[in-house]
Amino acid sequence: MAAVTRTTESLTPELYEYLVAHSAPVDPVLRDLADETARLFPDSVGMQIGPEQGTFMTMMARTLRARDAVEVGTFTGYSSICLARGLDSRNGSLLACDVSEEWTDVARRYWDLAGVADRIELRLGPALETLQALPAARAFDLAFIDADKTGYVGYWEELVPRMRPGGIILVDNTLSHGRVVDPAEDAPAVQGIRDFNDTALADERTDVVMLPIGDGLTMARKKD
Ligand SMILES: C[S@@+](CC[C@H](N)C(=O)[O-])C[C@H]1O[C@@H](n2cnc3c(N)ncnc32)[C@H](O)[C@@H]1O
């Protein structure tokens, strides 16, 4: 292994709180959405991205001046609102893919409240089929993958060719809560993430960095 010059700090709960408090504040719509999701779906609320990740994704969309974005795994809409807010306000569009009508019904309500409903198109159904059915010319500046972990390699293979040069793919949960490095861990979801991480690293069409945001956020840039 190459010499390590400096490592990332481990975050204590106090440090994490400080980090969130010193990032752009979460607005009332996202706060209400997080609260309602916790109330309606207490066993699933952990699937939602955290506030600093949401802010980072909005900034990423703005920095890229992204017009066309796609999300694989929408749930109740937190990450889709963060992405949509960063898109070009005149002609930005986000294709949101999910299988759950129940969860995305909540998302639809909050897209209205956040004022981004006009720039989000929801497609219900297995996301791999949705992506495979897109017209050949459909291209993206920004993509976010956050659905079934065993499907990540398939989503990657569909999305990389559709990314514009310089486009960014963000991929969630790439540390699998630390389980990626546990040799005794052989759950399909963890193996799916390991396979994805190896696939992305070996892919010569992109440059990749894993960021210690949330449960690990991989950022891949399509080469020019
Ligand atoms: C981790 S959650 C997404 C969380 C969301 N990005 C957020 O920040 O609130 C994963 C989502 O993927 C969806 N999903 C699971 N398998 C899927 C599939 N094959 N195709 C499309 N969506 C799928 C689930 O219904 C769920 O809403």
UniProtKB/TrEMBL annotation:
UniProt keyword Methyltransferase, yes or no: yes
Leader peptide range in chain numbering: none
Protein name per UniProt: O-methyltransferase
Keyword S-adenosyl-L-methionine annotated: yes
Protein keywords: Methyltransferase, S-adenosyl-L-methionine, Transferase
Recorded superkingdom: Bacteria
